# Entry
Amino acid sequence: MRQRRRAEDMAILGGNPAFDRLIPVGQLYFPAWDRYEEDMRSIFERGWFADGGPLARRFEEELARFFGVRHAIAVTNATFGLSLVAKALGISGGVVLPAWTFIATAQSMTWAGLTPILADVDPSTQMIGTEEIDQAIANAKGEHRVGAILAVNLWGGAASPKRIEKYADDMGVPLFFDSAQAVGCISEDGKLGGFGRAEVFSLHATKILSSAEGGVITTNDDDLAAKCRNISSSCGDETPTAIPLTASGCFTEAQAAVGLANLEQFDDHVMRNRMTRDVYRAILSDLQGFRLLEHSGVVASNDSYINCIVDENELGLNAAMLTQVLHAEAVVSRRYFNPGIHRSTPYAHSPSLVNGQGGYPNTDALSMGVIQLPVGALAGPEEAEVIGELILAACRFSIRIRQRLA
Ligand SMILES: Cc1ncc(COP(=O)(O)O)c(C=O)c1O
# Structure
């Protein structure tokens, strides 16, 4: 049995780090080298590296089956995919989106020439619902015409897609989803991928389905799919369509090779993440002032985020302090998202901030209290056991740690 950690064992108090390598927060699943090498060899033999190559096409077909949609369009990354969908939909004016999300959600709209209209989130789900969208539109006081709604499916959960769809339909504006974190999640309304006009998923290395870097747009709308293809690539679609402009959002064969191999392993990766989560839960569920967020709005999550809320009064340490404690142990926990979009450049002093500074209390509270713990290829059940115990120890020695950090 492992010995109970003493204060002097803690790296922040002078001990040695618990790990001799960095434990990253992201997924970082890579395929077996042999499998990748085989595909790379075939790419070199064909001499076809980018723009609609055979591996990319096969990956898109497999993704369409995986998501249960008519079209899956692989692109450079999800940030570009979101801008691209906004252009393809011909949106103008303002786009309602949450203040509590990764900065790329808002910035992709700014790149597309649109104005983010920020909504606060429901603190229990950390996502926007129809009430939050209503409130954001009311706060905008007609200053910005609402051109679309961009809902975010966060932390392997889902933001009530059908309810928001009905809301957007009643309002007569297009709805699309930033599902960057939600590959493979099954919401209470069905598998994510086919909701709204389109959804955009990230295939970045830190995500559950990685093509090393990349993103995928999913939609059941043939015309929208053709527009996305024509905007994204000089090869375009077999169906020429009128589009406002083009860009280069090519998905390479090398990305497709990583993506295809990782797709085969998807269920195994989720299973490993689930086991890791179970370990964290078993160790930390009784800890006062430390709460592991359960996935919201889904019947099956991809389990790729361990989202925790720290209450300083009860735990004795705040999220920033706990992050420092873990970093000293070579554990790269992260304070996503800190600060919220409304306090980030370039939005903090922008007229698009329709609700004013301090107008996002739930986002502010989450950005102070939330941390993400490592889970993924390099952080499995064994690492979770050590990290869980480090957190328990940090709580036991919180007074000394506070003194040290002061
Ligand atoms: C909610 C959200 N939106 C957008 C993105 C951007 O994804 P990408 O890195 O593929 O551009 C991310 C990536 O972390 C994300 O978490």
The chain has a mean pLDDT of 94. The CA atoms of residues 129 and 274 lie 27 Å apart. The chain has two domains: 7-27+266-405, 33-264. The longest helix spans residues 266-284.
